[in-house]
Amino acid sequence: xxxxxxxxxxxxxxxxxxxxxxxxxxIDVVNPATGETIATVPRCGAEDVDDAVSAASAAFxxxxxxxxTERARRVNALADAVSEHAEELALLDVAENGSPIxxxxxxxxxxxxxxxxxxxxxxxxxxxxxxxxxxxxxxTLMTPFGVVGRIVPFNHPLMFAGAKIAAPLIAGNxxxxxxxxxxxxxxxxxAELAAEVLPPGVLNVITGYGDEAGDALVVHPGVRRxxxxxxxEIGRHIQQxxxxxxxxxxxxxxxxxxxxxxxxxxxxxxxxxGALRGMNFTWQGQSCGSTSRLLVHRSIHDELVTALAxxxxxxxxxxxxxxxxxxxxIVHRRQYEKVLGYLEIGRAEGAxxxxxxxxxxxxxxxxxxxxxxxxxxxxxPGSRLAQEEIFGxxxxxxxxxxxxxxxxxxxxxxxxxxxxxxxxxxxxxxxFARDVEAGFVWINDTSKHFPGVPFGGxxxxxxxxxESLDELVSYAQVKNVNVRFG
Length: 486
Ligand code: NAD
Description:
Helix content: 25-40%
Number of domains: 2
Distance between the termini: 70 Å
CATH topology of the largest domain: Aldehyde Dehydrogenase, Chain A, domain 1
Bound molecules: nicotinamide-adenine-dinucleotide
């Protein structure tokens, strides 16, 4: 199958019906590796969001009262459909967001795994009895919110679309999902698959711009629970906007400017491999969890930076659909220009490019939005290159002499999502894990997520934890019941 050959006009899913936006307007989907327009998706607006909220509200009463094992059976059936169509779904992502097929295939399987993980937890969402008074029975019920709004970004389109609907559905809510306007087609294919296994209105998928469909979902009084994955800037905006209609519960998974700290006693070979993997160059560094600040002890700096630059230079840029491609295209032109802008900022701030530094020199990629994995050395910890999330294949290296200095640099940013340390000193490792301001810490490791392990940030990186039991519980409200014995 040729990527992009599946060019078509896609439909939103609202109340079990596959349909266009009421306005009839569409958004062009562009392949960032070639510049070609490959499909159109509905440009939904406030009236479509109204329809989706009505449909989700109507479906809620029967969905919430289904036996949890029956809800789990339906969600497992959706997981099976995702597994069965994994290759097709992965190719939609490849054509739309420019990441290599090997990675997007992994994302499709990860989406199915997360759906199954939450389906398996269906009977674990339970209340408790509280010994308040011996003449009374006091217990809690875990009750769903109703209609949940789920807004997700572009970097893992299918994985987020699949994985992030699982917990709210299992907890008995109905869901309105809005994918990124840049990467909507795999979510719309998921919607088609879901229409076969979920009752109408239980899952609705609307596409459109953030400040149109997204905003309408955020302010809708019929949506009491919102979960957002995206940039810190939009996350803060959403917190404000959500409060303009009714009181809402909002969780936010936002950006990162995450440190990987290589202490003097680290195994340099392992640290090089870890720093390379931690940047997620295999999806062009476009990951909230990317360890995009490299802090290296002065004693091993030269050896480590030289080896890392060589490893980065060896990565193969290529057409995303080719199996041998290791790093693909940046998702859209604005993001590409942002990344190129930071390459200029880094140079202007006096940092030294030691790997990459611009587009690849390959005529096959000339029409696409490609940037080589780039390493800046000698970066000032206070500079923009070290402080601001780029969300691209750009790693900023800095040097430190003491633990205190490393920690000060590591914690000296407004974001706090992930952090990593490489050391053979057990107490240093645990001390770092205790002191670093991050929600997710690796020791002698990077990048990897584990099913069931809470993921989320501190400071401006967000509110809430996902990928774990915490996520499931966050989609229920505690109701306390007090019974007096007659
Ligand atoms: P973005 O914030 O621009 O958009 C994310 C989503 O929000 C999209 O669906 C978009 O349409 C929607 N949106 C935009 N403006 C909106 C508004 N005013 N109201 C409602 N919705 C709106 O982010 P992006 O460029 O798609 O993704 C990159 C960002 O996502 C990075 O900052 C990255 O760190 C973050 N991210 C975080 C996590 C995490 O788990 N913490 C995971 C992946 C990505």
